[in-house]
Amino acid sequence: MPPKPKYTKEELLSVALDLTRENGIDAVVARNLGQVLNVSPSTVFTHFDTVEDIRMAVIEQARSMYNEYVEDGLNMTPPLKGFGMQYVRFAKEEPRLFMLLFMQKQDHIRFADFIVDEGHYERILLAAEDNFSINREQAEFLYHNLFTYAHGIATMLATGACDFSMDEISQMLGLGCRSFMIGMKLERDVREGMMPAIGKVPEGMPEDYFALRLKK
Fold first, then answer.
1. If exposure means fewest CB atoms within 10 Å of the residue's CB, which of 16, 39, 120, 160 is most exposed?
2. Could you report the per-residue pLDDT of 184-197, keeping only the tens digit for each?
């Protein structure tokens, strides 16, 4: 009968998660795990068959932590901004885990797939529809644009390119949300002038479009 391991599966995963939070998922290897646990590297496979299995378990833990952030955001008012706040907060407080979940290179992935894979797509759309009394198309327009904006802020924070306080983040997301709401309610031709479709070049200044809108 093999000897009982000196550590539990939960303890191993805790070490693996800490290694990831400090140095990224590539730091999760048998040698590093064994060193922290003070055991032979080979014994880390008592609970898992491969290092890849351990890394997948770490990703599940990171996802669970992220989901807790999102739940807090969806309980804020308005929930759409709350989601954006918590998405960015996660990147600020857990940069390595954010990069693990949302900054891995993908082959030919579409934005539509990326935003759905985030995991809360339907709930956020329903919250936007209910909170702002808008239809599904408007909710998608609003969410897609705010998510792109929030992801840009989150990426700057996670990579250390720059830092923002949570008050600054709240102001930026609030302004972004209001701006996208204005754009959402404009007629399509005016909206595309301010936010051109692919291949279109904008002409004039935003003030011109608002002036034009007010004259109608």
1. 160
2. 775 555 444 444 44
